[in-house]
Amino acid sequence: MEKYLINPNERIATINKNIYGHFSEHLGRCIYEGLYVGEDSPIPNVKGMRSDVVNALKEIKIPVLRWPGGCFADEYHWKDGIGPRESRKKMINTHWGGVLEDNSFGTHEFMELCEQLGCDAYICGNVGSGSVQEMSEWVEYMTLDGVSPMADLRKKNGREKPWRVKFFGVGNESWGCGGHMTPEYYADEYRRYQTFVRIYDKENPVYKIACGPNAADYNWTEVLMKKAARYMSGLSLHYYTIPTGNWKHKGKATVFSDEEYYNTIKNAYKMEELVQRHSEIMNRYDPQKRVSLVVDEWGTWYDVEEGTNPRFLYQQNAVRDALVAGLTLNIFNKHSDRVRMANIAQTVNVLQSIALTDGENTVLTPTYYVFKMYSDHQENTLLGSYITTRDLSDDGALPQLIESASAKEDGTIISTVVNTSLTDAADIHCQIADFAVKGVTAEILTGDPHDHNDFENKNVVGIREFKDLELTADGFKVCVPPCSVVKFIIT
Ligand code: AHR
């Protein structure tokens, strides 16, 4: 019997809702078809935004959406995407398949999408091929209330009042597709660019996010924190889970061996070490934890589905992905004193999506349902918790179980537990300190790791009620099935 201890007296931090954020790039069919179909489309839409996807995202309480990239952000020139659509410049999306980008989805459309979703905007500016002036003018265009060349241009384009841009990223992957810079060079560039990301609304200052490290590049974090910490509110981190660890043959989304499954889970668990070690560096320069670690790209990355454009990064999504999502979100929750935003890549039709579309058809993925279950953690207080667990590897890097627990304002405890074993259920005794348990309800997502939803069978994987638990004087006992994500609501 494993022991699961929750301590409601140990109130660690607020679980920022933005940990449950998303990322959308001009890549493959994410923006066009996935989120935006245009006003004239037969697919039901409001001002061009496809209603089924918007409603699905609202259902999981999407808190923040990052746009326009990704690598695309460093070749995006925002002025090409404003004004009458028919006269917008067309360009080739060189990074993602060399397809035509007609700029019909630009700043006004993105802000409209955020308004429909009721979420905050996280815009990533162009450092790689842009200029300080271009970035500065974009911020002026979006956020200045009053008279100025850019505010006047915005008004001419139909938007009288400024928008609220809560988060602004200064470049993307500046160590790679964003310009192949050294950390020293980027730190200086960051300092210069961010100076001109002006705060026009003193009540709502823009939260400036610097480009952070690629996975385990600890030197990048060290240099950025040393040279530029005082000029940033957040530092990003990118890490993708690749089953084989080999970018050339990553493995498939729904066809994989047990060994590949466990490698995937093990690689996903690496997020724990990354967050831990980057946080340790940040702690040295910022012991007050003012600067957030923003994991603004994460998720599984497989070989694309057969017959699809290799640069469109379209992949299916199975129960294995649900486990990756569940365990990663538990890691973020447990580090919510430093991790205050995360954005899974990428919303629709690209990488670890929450929805897939085919014409007017939409299917919600297992990952979607994990976000739905976990949305209950948003803005709760992270509680101290600990679970005993076997390790499924020989090097301690693959715990069978991982948990997180939080308290709502009314005292209700939300706990999410992931069982990564393919074969073994876990008998767990959950004990809650100083808490008279009145009742526990639970939901589960479970199945064969290959199970997935597709356009013919949309409901193979979903959330089911879970009743296999027994109240005890100090908590409850439960048998968590293999390959599952479970949420407990404890009152
Ligand atoms: O999410 C796909 C790509 O992965 C992004 O464009 C880039 O930032 C990262 O390398």
Describe the protein's architecture and organization.
It contains 9 helices and 24 strands. It is of the alpha/beta class and 491 residues long. The chain folds into 2 domains: 2-8 and 383-490, Sandwich (Immunoglobulin-like), CATH 2.60.40; 16-378, TIM Barrel. The protein has a 10-stranded mixed sheet, covered by helices on one side. Strands 2-5-8-9-10-11-12-13 form an 8-stranded parallel β-barrel, surrounded by 4 helices. Helix 7 links the parallel strand 11 and strand 12. Helix 5 crosses helix 6 (218-228), helix 6 runs parallel beside helix 7 (258-285) and helix 7 runs parallel beside helix 8 (319-334). The longest helix has 28 residues, at 258-285. The chain is globular, with a radius of gyration of 22 Å. The model has no long low-confidence stretch (mean pLDDT 97). Bound molecules: alpha-L-arabinofuranose. Residues 25, 69-71, 172-173, 297, 345-346, 351 line the site of alpha-L-arabinofuranose (AHR).
